[in-house]
Design brief:
The complex is a heterodimer of chains A (about 625) and B (about 350). Chain A has about 625 residues and is mainly α. Chain A is about 80% helix and about 0% strand. Chain A folds into 2 domains: about 300 residues, MetI-like fold; about 260 residues, MetI-like fold (Orthogonal Bundle), CATH 1.10.3720.10. By secondary structure, chain B is an alpha/beta fold. Chain B folds into 2 domains: about 220 residues, Rossmann fold (3-Layer(aba) Sandwich); about 60 residues, Alpha-Beta Complex (CBS domain Like), CATH 3.90.1280.20. Chain B is built from 16 helices and 13 strands. A 6-stranded mixed sheet of chain B has the order 6-7-8-3-9-10, sandwiched between helices. Chain B has a 4-stranded antiparallel sheet with strand order 2-1-4-5, with helices on both faces. Chain B has a 3-stranded mixed sheet with strand order 11-12-13. In chain B, helix 1 runs antiparallel to helix 2 and helix 7 packs across helix 8. The longest helix of chain B is centred in the middle third of the chain and has 18 residues. The radius of gyration of chain B is 22 Å and the shape is globular. The chains are: A mainly alpha (about 625), B alpha/beta (about 350). Chains A and B meet through helix 10 and helix 11 of A and helix 4, strand 6 and helix 6 of B.
Chain lengths: ~625, ~350
């Protein structure tokens, strides 16, 4: 940030200080007066985007089997991906279940990570015991295919980006966008190109999982100390030798961190891909949602967590470079032979499928508890629901959609952007709204924005105080940590189920699920910001006799403010992703439109909604980031 | 001291290194005598090395001494081809490093050069033996041969028995011994040292300096050694260049620098050096003969003090062949001691 020189304005005396605010108020009021009564965004451009896309979609449907673009490019890609996924699924189904467990546990064992091996075996056992083995294997096949694809593409991309600054600069915004855009947005174009099935599921998962891998590969390689690279050069190593013998081995740790993140990202998507016709555990979650069975939803959710654990531990084990921890070659060979014997015996004896001991209904008592709670707390829950929906959400939405004229929103957004960072951000903000209006999604987007606002405020209201507290109390943080981990790994969709049971379909259960889902980064990053306040600053304040309260308000919070703003940014991104998913539970607005477009193959509408979502996400992302920058103390040189 | 007079191994001729996008412009300005900070302000370019020329003879240890920011690390990177020079030439055995293609440069490095780095630059994912064998490995030497050679050089630097360790399991001094072993394993003719001992504790540093002196006595290679420590420069260097703001203030042997510092800057460094420990009988002798006792010309003055200060005697200074070449008396060393205070 050293290049940004901010002019520190002198404190103006008197009215001048308020001039911008007066300008804002006057401008907004004038626009409101001028446009009052004609609140709706002028139509006429609605079909500008959706028209051609619908035509393209129809064209694709007709020509999928004949046009060279499909027969020569997309179909082969699709065939290969399909072949890999179904091949993997077949292999996983062919191998006896206990052999799959043995293979999963073997890699950690070869690195002497016995506890991890045990963990892998236990969680895989869990999956089998609850009758989810087949679905889990299907999900595993999709995950392995998507992650392999991410590694095959991401690693070379990361290597190239680490060596050419220009490639890196070009790649960065693309990767940013890939992570900012809610996953649903990918689904529709992929559906258009690849048709229904596993392939768009794998590709969507791959797209979402790629950025962390590329980023951390670049980071890993650029972090290799220059002395190591120089000494390699000095001994006459070619650049390929330097890469293979020095840079990649030294970057492995970082790359594996990228892999772990990739796995987490992929899991978030893998539960949603039944929407494009792919199978696996996600189907079971959707079923649980439709049947209102939170117990079963939890069982399936935990099975997904189990797969995350298995893949993560295997990735970590295979990245363990310390040969001191490796088993002797003889022992490894023995292990491999053992696994082969297990496979052979299992096949020979015909013990292939998991002998499901319990069925997933083992979790059904949870359903009863939730139902009982619902029936007995109806008075309270109904009141909560009604208050939030009728007294907060609806009035706010109606105010913004029906009362405030659209030019006012554009003007205020531009004004804030200008105050935060200048003309560029102002123009971007205003233009984003204009595009959203032009494609005919003004009220739906405004509706979603209100939901995002409410969910964000609620999330921050809980997570920032909690984070401040956790940042000052390591004990609280260690107590919270496992809960936060659990909240983060359980697939977002699972949260919806109990709240839908509780509150029935509507905006409120989605809102609560969204808050639950988005809490974690809020707490974590805030705690980090508070903890990272330099000890000297706190000690200096103590020396001057500041009370703990004064230290918090005058030292810790101001110094942690930019980090907390980053937390706000992260929370908003999570909220947007989840608010859309809440559309599945009757949240309405853009979320509903996305689901509808997917279900009815309304390509044009889907792409427009995707565009509106992306613009809304980018708008909030950039504005909060700019706000975080303003809070940062000027950098020294 | 010094090699026999022969063709210089390294010839550095009017080398400039300017960092920044507008380096041509900055170079032109600098050549007209515009100062470093003015050039930076006008062009945004930093002048790292400014018109440096020198020669290094085979078997000689040439030390470049300067404080941080003086351009000494940049200079050694120009010599080794890790950085491109902006102007001038660097010849090693007559071949111009600055105009080489990357494959020629690679061939030169494989056959003749080696380097020891300030932060060791070891590979944490390789065992000590494979670190030492790295240079041979990239040359394509077979595993058996390169490991045999690596064991040999690890033995030389006193690391026998540690070959199966990983670098991070060793102390800082031992890590730099690995760096040293790696550098000599390829049997280079020219070795560059970029502040190799500055990250080490003082005692370990002294050990490593002694080790290097011992090695150099045995191997007689051409060394270019970068340091910010004047005492280290004096201990190791046959000749020393004092570098400041990208320029050489003075080149000379330790005794020459101490006897006749060319600039105030050099004088600053020399001032704190105990001269009696550096200067030899040769440096303080006068014309004459007839001393009561004989002393070799290379003996440092400190060792003469007891004799000269206890009695009013005069010592005969002799050279290698035993011929008398001058005398040292009490007055000469007292003058030296007074200078020191």
């Amino acid at each position: 940030m050293t290049t940004v020189s901010r002019v520190v304005a002198p404190v103006d005396a008197g009215w001048k200080r308020f001039a911008p605010w007066v300008g804002l108020a006057v401008g907004a009021l004038a626009l409101q007066a001028a446009f009052a009564g004609s609140n709706a965004f002028p139509g006429g451009l609605d079909t500008l985007i959706s028209g051609p896309i619908d035509e393209a979609g129809a064209w694709m449907r007709e020509n999928r089997r004949s046009h060279p673009l499909f027969t020569g490019v997309f179909m082969p890609i699709s065939d290969i991906v399909d072949w890999v996924v179904s091949g993997l699924a077949d292999v996983l189904a062919w191998i006896p279940w206990f052999a799959v467990v043995a293979i999963g546990a073997m890699l950690p064992i070869t690195r002497r990570m016995y506890r991890q091996a045990l963990l892998v075996a236990v969680v895989m056992g869990y999956v089998g015991v609850f009758g989810l083995w087949e679905l889990a294997m299907a999900t595993l096949a999709v995950m392995i295919a998507a992650i392999t694809l991410a590694v095959v593409v991401g690693l070379p991309l990361g290597v190239v980006a680490s060596r050419h600054r220009r490639v890196e600069a070009a790649l960065r915004p693309v990767l940013d966008a890939m992570q900012t855009i809610p996953a649903f947005v990918y689904f529709l174009p992929l559906l258009m190109v690849f048709g229904i099935g596993n392939v768009p599921g794998v590709v969507a998962t791959f797209i979402y999982a790629l950025p962390p891998l590329v980023r951390l590969t670049v980071l890993g390689i650029t972090q290799v100390p220059s002395s190591a690279v120089e000494s390699s050069k000095m001994f006459g190593a070619t650049s390929l030798q330097t890469l293979v013998k020095v840079q990649l081995p030294m970057a492995v740790r970082s790359i594996v961190t990228g892999m772990s993140q990739t796995i987490m990202m992929a899991l978030g998507i893998v539960v949603l891909i039944p929407l494009v016709g792919a199978g696996g555990l996600g189907t079971a979650i959707f079923e649980s949602l439709n049947q209102r069975r939170p117990g079963r939803g939890l069982a399936v959710g935990l099975a997904i967590v189990a797969i995350a654990i298995v893949l993560d531990r295997i990735a970590r084990a295979s990245a363990e470079r310390d040969p001191l921890k490796r088993l002797a070659p003889g022992a490894m060979a023995g292990l491999a032979v053992g696994v082969l014997v297990i496979v052979a015996v299992g096949r020979g004896a015909g013990w292939v499928d998991f002998p499901a001991v319990w069925k997933p209904n083992a979790f059904d008592p949870i359903d009863d508890v939730v139902t009982w709670l619902r029936d007995n707390l109806r008075g309270v829950t109904r009141a909560m629901n009604d208050f939030v929906v009728a007294d907060v959400y609806l009035p706010l939405r109606d105010l913004l959609v029906d009362v405030v004229a659209w030019p006012v929103v554009v003007f205020v957004t531009g004004w804030i952007g200008w105050r935060l960072r200048g003309a560029k951000l102002a123009i971007f903000g205003a233009a984003a709204w204009l595009v959203i209006g032009a494609v005919g999604l003004w009220s739906a987007t405004m509706d979603t924005a209100v939901q995002v606002l409410l969910a964000t405020l609620a999330t921050l209201g809980i997570s920032v105080p909690l984070g401040v507290w956790a940042g000052r109390s390591p004990r609280l943080e260690s107590v919270l940590s496992p809960f936060l981990d659990a909240l983060q790994t359980v697939p977002s969709l699972v949260y919806l189920i109990p709240f839908v049971v509780f509150f029935s379909v509507g905006m409120f259960p989605g809102l609560i699920a969204t808050v639950m889902y988005s809490l974690v980064p809020g707490v974590r990053i805030t705690a980090l910001g508070i903890r990272e306040v330099p000890v000297e600053s706190v000690e200096a304040a103590e020396t001057f006799g500041a009370t703990p309260r004064q230290i918090l308000l005058r030292v810790r919070l101001p110094l942690a403010a930019p980090t907390i703003m980053t937390a706000v940014n992260q929370v908003i991104m999570m909220v947007i992703a989840m608010v859309i998913i809440a559309g599945l539970a009757g949240g309405g607005a853009l979320g509903f439109l996305v689901v509808e477009s997917l279900a009815r193959s309304k390509f044009g509408q889907g792409v427009e909604v995707g565009l509106a979502l992306v613009l809304l996400a980018m708008l909030l992302d950039r504005f909060t980031e700019a706000a975080a920058d303003r809070l940062r103390p000027p950098a020294g040189s | 001291m010094g090699g026999p007079a022969s063709e210089p191994r390294i010839v550095v001729d009017a080398v400039w290194k300017v960092f920044g996008a507008r380096c041509d412009e900055a170079l032109a300005m600098s050549r007209e005598g515009v100062g470093r900070s003015d050039v930076l302000e006008a062009t945004g370019c930093t002048v790292g090395v400014r018109d440096v020329s020198f020669e290094v003879l085979p078997g000689e240890t040439f030390v470049v001494m300067g404080l941080s920011g003086s351009g000494k690390s940049t200079l050694v990177r120009c010599l080794s081809g890790l950085t491109d020079v902006t102007a001038g030439s660097v010849r090693i055995d007559g071949d111009d490093v600055t105009s080489m293609s990357s494959s020629q440069l690679r061939a030169l490095r494989r056959s003749k050069l080696s380097m020891v780095f300030q932060h060791f630059g070891l590979f944490p994912h390789r065992r000590v033996i494979d670190n030492a064998a790295f240079g041979l490995e990239v040359q394509g030497v077979s595993k058996v041969d390169r490991r045999a050679r690596a064991l040999e050089v690890l033995e030389i630097v006193g690391l026998a028995g540690f070959e199966q360790h990983y670098p991070q399991q060793l102390s800082g001094g031992m890590q730099q011994r690995v760096g040293l072993a790696r550098a000599i394993a390829v049997d280079p003719e020219v070795l560059f040292f970029d502040e190799p001992f500055s990250a080490l504790d003082p005692l370990i540093r002294r050990d490593m300096q002694d080790e290097l002196v011992r090695l150099q006595d045995r191997l007689q290679r051409t060394l270019v050694f970068i340091t910010h420590d004047f005492a280290e420069a004096i201990k190791l260097g046959d000749r020393i260049a004092i570098m400041k703001d990208g320029v050489f203030d003075q080149i000379g042997s330790a005794a020459e620098l101490i006897r006749s510092p060319a600039t105030d800057y050099v004088r600053e460094f020399v001032r704190d050096i105990p001269k009696t420990k550096v200067l030899t009988a040769r440096d303080v002798m006068q014309v004459g003969e007839g001393g009561e006792q004989r002393v070799h010309a290379d003996v440092v003055v400190e060792h003469l003090l007891p004799q000269l200060l206890s009695s009013d005697s005069v010592l005969d200074v002799i050279d290698d062949s035993g011929r008398s070449i001058g005398v040292v008396d009490r007055a000469a060393v007292i003058a030296l001691l007074e200078e020191q205070v």
